[in-house]
Amino acid sequence: MSGWVVIAGLGPGDEALVTPEVRAALEAATDVVGYIPYVARVAPRDGLTLHSSDNRVELERAAHALAMAADGQRVVVVSSGDPGVFAMASAVFEALEAGPQHWRALDIRVLPGITAMLAAAAKAGAPLGHDFCAINLSDNLKPWALIEKRLRLAAEGDFAMAFYNPRSKSRPEGFARALEVLREACADARPVLFARAVSTPQQELRIVPLTDAQPEMADMRTMVIIGSSLTRVIDTPRGPVLYTPRSA
Ligand SMILES: C[S@@+](CC[C@H](N)C(=O)[O-])C[C@H]1O[C@@H](n2cnc3c(N)ncnc32)[C@H](O)[C@@H]1O
To answer: How many angstroms separate the alpha carbon of residue 70 from the centre of ligand 1?
Structure first.
């Protein structure tokens, strides 16, 4: 089999944050597969077929990529950020596990990208400089009770927390509930970063105390990072810098 599948992360938005390794894979590909807005970031060219699909069909998309590679195509499955963070790499391996035995002989590689959490943290300072965790706040693929349990335990462990998928039009109340849980569990005014559309022309950063954080400050293009009890803000003439010291 001469085909391959590369599962690649396109980074948070800025072309300068796409790794050279990912660029090279896209240049060598015959097919690119992914969610519509991510495939739209790949420049069309002769010899390259772009396959865009809706975000609700991850497993079908993954199986399609594997089937094309088994037919000899060179396929790049694109995700935003890093493909292993709440994205397509797991979906491809789920499809591999459930699929025909001959798919397991395929050349499948995962190429990392800069995940939104790290891009957001870097723009604000160093809020993830000590122990932290990342939580997907969407309850599409897990029950809300589990999210709430993880929020409480992360607060008890005094982790900084990075939230992906904080709030969507179809799930407006979940993030409001998450803020209530955090206010109760943290019981202080630690800083919260709302980082929207990081590294794109629409980028907006806002840092507020947990006591003032409002659900409307987040949407599906926002990364929310809440500090640990030690995270603080330094005021500088260039704006606030958010950081967590390296020792607890
Ligand atoms: C399905 S997750 C995909 C995460 C992606 N694989 C990554 O590593 O960044 C989508 C969520 O990532 C966050 N996100 C992605 N790109 C972002 C950006 N440029 N700025 C802020 N948040 C972003 C948002 O929380 C969004 O709801």
So the answer is: 30
Please identify, by atom number, the ligand 1 atom nearest to the C-alpha of residue 79: 6
Q: What is the pLDDT of residues 49-78, one digit of tens each?
A: 999 999 889 999 999 999 999 999 999 999
Angle formed at CA 194 by CA 111 and CA 210, multiple of 5 degrees: 130
Q: Report residue 90: phi and psi, to 5°.
A: -65, -40
Distance from the CA of 112 to the center of ligand 1, in angstroms?
A: 14
Ligand 1 centre from 196 Cα, in Å? 9
> Around Cβ 179, how many Cβ atoms within 10 Å?
22
Task: Look at residues 202, 73, 205, 94 and name the one whose alpha carbon lies nearest to residue 141.
Answer: 94
pTM score above 0.70: yes
Q: Tens digits of per-residue pLDDT, 108-139?
A: 999 999 999 999 999 999 999 999 999 999 99
